[in-house]
Amino acid sequence: MGSKYGELAIKQLRDHLHKREHEAFLSAFRAPTLLVLAMRDNYLKALGGEALCVLLEEVPEPPPDMLRHYEALLLDGALLVPCGVVLDLARRLKSKPLQLLGERVRLLENRLSRAKPREPVREEQIEDLKAPVIEVRRFVQSTFMEFTPRTAAETLGMRKSIFRSEQERAFQKALSLRFPALLALPNYALDQIAELSSLRKYLGERVWSYGRHCRIDALLVLPDEGRPVAAFELDSGYHDQPEAQFRDEMKNAIFRLLGMPFFRLRVESPSSTTSDEWYAILTDEVVPRLDLGRRLHSQASV
Q1: Do 225 and 295 fall into the same domain?
Q2: Are 178 and 294 in the same domain?
Q3: Are residues 23 and 104 in the same domain?
Q4: Which of 90, 223, 230, 279 would be a feasible disulfide site paired with 183, CB 3.0-4.6 Å?
Q5: Whether the Cβ atoms of residue 233 and residue 250 lie closer than 8 Å to each other
Q6: Buried b vs exposed e over 220-233: b needs ≥16 C-beta within 10 Å?
Q7: In whole angstroms, how large is the CA radius of gyration of the chain?
Q8: Is 206 contained in some domain?
Q9: DSSP bridge partners of 6
Q10: What is the extent of the structural domain holding 62?
Q11: Residues 170 and 288 occupy one common structural domain
Q12: CA distance 268 to 264
């Protein structure tokens, strides 16, 4: 990990895991500073995943709060575990988001196993397999450029989240979980999914000019081809204003010409709606109206 803190943190986590101090391990792993490191370090992710595996194997009835914490870590991408472990935890917690995540991991594992078939072990390799396992330091070469201090860049607004609100962040998480076979993209430019130059004569100058500069709150695309499948707008009380309604109608007109499913979703409390609640809304309001089977088939036939 390249830092004194990281090395000490790993040693502490290993000690907790060796002594089967599950609560102490989880508390240390969830510390904000360590969790930031874990989000970008696969070794730490794997170490956290190993702790979960040991907990499920050796503790008959783990505390529910502990399992919920591991669920949150999995959904945030802070752990690396096999699909069977994810599905086991999903069954214990009756968690639909975890169930979908486990199915996504299973698809990935199956894809990798088909791409790289395992070769049979030869006799001359047996002695090598008996050799003790040693840990080696990984080495990578990278180029890093930073022209201003991070704190200064953030303070001056040079960098910001791709989500413009908490509502968008929660919705994006639910969208990815509800449609795991598709790629969910936030705040996507409309001119990247539509040939606006071809639509100019049908839209008129004002609508065409608006379309060149507007964005879609969320977009579902086919991962391999990048073809758009459906678009989403998260409406609020702001959209009741006449000027906003006029812009909404221009966007609606563009999507009517595109012939692409376009969903406008509105909730009573945008800032407090959780990803689980958005997941339920997608299930009830979007899935029945989105014929993915027909859509994917028509794209494959092009």
Answers
A1: yes
A2: yes
A3: yes
A4: 223
A5: no
A6: bbbeeeeebbbbbb
A7: 24
A8: yes
A9: none
A10: 4-108
A11: yes
A12: 14
Residue 238 forms part of a structural domain: yes
Distance separating alpha carbons of residues 44 and 25, to the nearest angstrom:
12
Question: Which one of 175-179, 222-226, 266-270 scores highest in mean pLDDT?
Answer: 175-179
> Are the beta carbons of 280 and 208 closer than 8 angstroms?
no
206 and 85 co-located in one domain: no
In the chain, how many domains are there?
2
Report the predicted TM-score, pTM, of the whole model to 2 decimal places. Answer: 0.48
Residue 204: inside a domain:
yes
- For residue 102, give both structure tokens: 């486990």
On whether residue 222 sits in a domain, the answer given is yes
At residue 150, the pLDDT reads: 53
* Strands 215-221 and 183-189, bridge-based pairing: antiparallel
pLDDT at 213: 87
E-state strands within the chain = 183-189, 215-221, 228-235, 262-266
C-alpha closest to that of 44 among 83, 87, 7, 85: 7
- In percent, how much of the chain has pLDDT > 90? 16
* H/E stretch holding 173: helix 166-178
Closest CA to 233 of 243, 212, 247: 247
Residue 144 has pLDDT above 50, yes or no: no
Nearest to 211 by CA among 222, 232, 196: 196
Report residue 206 as tokens: 């004002």
Contact by Cβ (8 Å): 26, 59: no
Arithmetic mean of pLDDT over the chain: 79
Question: What is the rounded CA–CA span in Å between residue 2 and residue 22?
Answer: 26
In 3D space, the residue among 71, 298, 40, 293 whose CA is nearest the CA of residue 182 turns out to be 293
- Span 241-265, average pLDDT: 87
